[in-house]
Sequence to fold (77 residues):
Amino acid sequence: MNRKKQKKQNNRTLDRTQTDRKKFSVLPDEDIPDCLERMRQEGYTPVRRKEVPVFKKDSNGMRVSHQEIIFEGRLMK
Fold:
């Protein structure tokens, strides 16, 4: 298979997977089980959990304010 054809095929695969996935952040006023329930109500099942540090600037420099929890969901079939 030549390179152009292979690249085109890879882009099609990428487009399909992007529509099947969605990211959900745990909101400040909800717990993790609430977020997972919200995902299920929208028709997604969790496949990945990611914790991202949120930094805040203060007089001593930058410090971690809190961790943001983000779930990646895959569309259920």
